[in-house]
Design brief:
- The chain has 2 domains: 63 residues, no CATH class; 164 residues, Rod shape-determining protein MreC, domain 1 (Thrombin, subunit H), CATH 2.40.10.340.
- It is built from 5 helices and 12 strands.
- The strands form 2 sheets. A 6-stranded antiparallel β-barrel has the order 1-2-5-4-3-12. A 6-stranded antiparallel beta barrel has the order 6-7-8-11-10-9.
- The N and C termini lie far apart (90 Å).
- It has 280 residues and is α+β, with helices and mostly antiparallel strands.
């Protein structure tokens, strides 16, 4: 403490003339601005511009650091809106209500079949035989094994492992991951990744009589864990033997940052019913 005081006194003594000059300059400037309205207004305007620029930089800096919180809140809001809107199903043109499942469009008198759980992607692989994603939500957030995972542009994968606060999902870009998919006229086939290009998957099982054109939409059929009518990608080209199609995925797995885990509220009831029919 004494050493600091001694240094301060030394600085004041050494730069005494400079500090006196600075004080007199401030006094003169103050008197000058008080007695000259034009210079006073110019000074006020300049000081306001400087302070405004500083505050703008400050807000931009704080805004940058708050982007993560903003993104998280937007993802949660999107999940809430998706849950309210539901996922549209293709109507049954036969008008047979005994075979038409309840629509998942949420309205005053209808029930939503799916619940969306927003998650952030913590880890993601695309260059392995079995690719996985690690998500920042687990049992506590309502995630369970075999729940479907989608993003805002298409399907992503299936939950395989769940801990208290984290979960792991098998990526669509994995060996033996098969998805039931359909083309424009509702013809259903099987879609899988061949382990080559992470932007392309293979669609098989479409009869040659069905004409699939380039850029035709390929959607989920609703058979399996994924709800119906979620975009998977667009048809790229037909194989030489005419039995399979290459499909451009609707999103880039390299750019996955946020996903939605879908809970099918009616899944348990459906599985129990299907199991009971198999045991008969």
């Amino acid at each position: 403490m004494q050493f600091a005081v001694r240094n301060l006194i030394f600085i004041l003594k050494r730069y005494y003339n400079f500090f006196i000059f600075l004080l007199l300059e401030i006094i003169c400037l103050n008197i000058f601005l008080r007695n000259n309205r034009y210079q006073q207004s110019s000074w006020v305007n300049s000081s306001q511009n400087i302070s405004g620029a500083l505050f703008t930089q400050k807000q931009q800096l704080f805004g940058f650091f708050s982007l993560r919180a903003v993104n998280d809140s937007l993802v949660r809001e999107n999940a809430r809106l998706k849950q309210q809107l539901g996922i549209p199903q293709i109507p049954n043109h036969l008008k047979d209500t005994s075979y038409t499942s309840t629509t998942v469009r949420d309205s005053v008198k209808q029930t939503t079949h799916y619940r969306y759980i927003p998650c952030k992607v913590l880890n993601n692989s695309i260059d392995l035989k079995y690719n996985f994603l690690t998500l920042n939500a687990g049992y506590k957030q309502g995630i369970r094994k075999n729940f479907a995972v989608i993003c805002d542009k298409g399907i992503v994968g299936r939950i395989t492992h769940v801990s208290e606060n984290y979960s792991v999902a098998a990526s669509l870009l994995s060996d033996k991951f098969v998805v039931s998919a359909m083309v424009g006229d509702t013809t259903v086939g099987k879609l899988y990744w061949d382990g080559d290009n992470p932007n392309l998957v293979i669609l098989s099982g479409i009869p040659q009589s069905v004409k699939v054109k380039q850029k035709d939409s390929v959607l989920t059929s609703g058979f399996g864990i994924f709800p119906e009518n979620i975009l998977i990608g667009r048809a790229a080209e037909r194989s030489k033997n005419g039995t399979t199609y290459k499909v451009w995925l609707s999103h880039d797995f390299r750019k996955l940052h946020y996903v939605y885990v879908i809970e099918d509220i009616t899944q348990i009831e459906r599985i129990l019913l299907e199991d009971s029919t198999q045991s008969e």
